[in-house]
Amino acid sequence: MPYRCDLRSKLGIANNSMVEARAAVHAANMGAVAERVSEGLEITLQARETGESALAELGFRRTGLAVSVTIILAMIAGLILKIREIENR
Questions:
Q1: How buried is 35 (Cβ within 10 angstroms: 0-12 exposed, 13-18 middle, 19+ buried)?
Q2: Is-contact 33 21, C-beta < 8 A?
Q3: What does each of the 89 residues of the chain score in pLDDT, given as a tens digit?
Q4: Which of 31, 43, 70, 75 is deepest in the core (most CB within 10 A)?
């Protein structure tokens, strides 16, 4: 799961930026707060994009699984019907 590890590290960095921004608020340094917040927001947006792409891939895989299972079940049903037909002769 490369997505999970990548997302956790990005969100950890974003959390660190949030903590640093809170510390900068107490120092009454708005420039530092804005810098830390923008860093955190950028990382959070990257993590969101990674998560959305992971969800899209999951949907694609589920669709592929449903199609393949349907085809396999149809083949099994066809084989069962063919075996019954041969046995009835």
A1: middle
A2: yes
A3: 455 567 677 777 777 777 777 676 666 667 766 777 787 788 888 888 888 888 899 999 999 999 999 999 999 999 999 999 999 88
A4: 43
Q: What does the alpha-carbon distance between residue 34 and residue 29 come to, in Å, rounded to a whole number?
A: 9
d(CA 2, CA 73): 32
Token reading at 14: 């974003």
Place of tokens 């792409």: 53
Report d(CA 64, CA 85) in Å as an integer: 32
84's enclosing H/E stretch is: helix 30-88
Q: Do the Cβ atoms of 5 and 20 come closer than 8 Å?
A: no
pTM: 0.56
45, 71 contact by CB (below 8 A): no
| Residue whose tokens read 């707060």 | 33
